[in-house]
Design goal:
The protein is α+β, with helices and mostly antiparallel strands. Helices cover about 15% and strands about 15% of the residues. It has three helices and nine strands, in the order ααβββαββββββ. The strands form two sheets. Strands 5-6-7-3-8-9 form a six-stranded antiparallel sheet, with no helix packed on it. It starts with a helix and ends in a 12-residue tail after the last strand.
Length: about 230
């Protein structure tokens, strides 16, 4: 074979090889256009080692998801009790007086009123009785006839509590009254249970539990006017 012939054969083979290579590149790019080749990664070629699946869509493994944390069920909230109004306080008890009055029957005199010491109580006809009870025994009169004073209604025994009240004297002190008649002791009584003040001045009389005058045991010459 001549050298020229051998060269022609070599050139032909080279040209054929070039055509084959060109067709391979054209097939790899998917078209004969000028689109840019896309680089293939290991994922495109198949990471499982099966390289015969080139051209199929790659199978991507989804990333492992963290296990869901179970939702803890919250305990039901305990309802807050509604605020209760303060309990009503009972009214304060009235102070107990240290003064005591006793209605009782005694020999000869009949029904009388005595204080806690047994002193006989009197009423004064010149006092204002109703509607606003008022004492008209002040100054020296109040020395001879001491008014029964108390800041609170006294304890009573044998007397209707509804009849017992307090009046305000001219000096602002409180005096006990029975049925609106202010009551007094007599400074010249010789002792408890005595009634030397009965009928004095025809205006002073022992008081009964109902507030009326006791007209028993009057001194000679003294009469009780209605």
């Amino acid at each position: 074979m001549s050298v020229i012939r051998r060269n022609r054969i070599a050139i032909g083979l080279a040209a054929g090889l070039a055509v084959v290579l060109g067709l391979g590149v054209w097939s790899a790019t998917g078209s004969g256009t000028n689109s840019k080749p896309v680089a293939q990664t290991e994922t495109d070629l198949g990471v499982l080692g099966d390289y015969g699946d080139v051209g199929q869509a790659p199978v991507l493994q989804e990333p492992a998801q963290a296990p869901e944390t179970p939702v803890q069920q919250q305990a039901p909230e305990t309802p807050t009790p509604a605020a209760q109004p303060p309990a009503a306080q009972p009214p304060a008890a009235a102070p107990v007086s240290s003064v005591k009055l006793v209605g009782k029957a005694v020999d000869k005199m009949g029904m009388v009123v005595q204080d806690g010491d047994g002193r006989t109580m009197y009423r004064f006809d010149k006092d204002t009785k109703a509607p606003d009870a008022k004492s008209n025994c002040n100054n020296q009169c109040a020395v001879t006839w001491p008014p029964l004073l108390s800041d609170t209604v006294p304890q009573v025994e044998g007397i209707d509590p509804k009849l017992v009240s307090l009046i305000t004297r001219a000096d602002g002190k409180k005096q006990v009254a029975i049925d609106n008649s202010p009551i007094y002791a007599y400074s010249l009584d010789p002792g408890p249970g005595k009634w030397a003040g009965q009928g004095v001045g025809k205006t002073w009389f022992v008081i009964q539990p109902d507030g009326k005058r006791n007209v028993e045991c009057l001194p000679a010459g003294v009469t009780a006017t209605p």
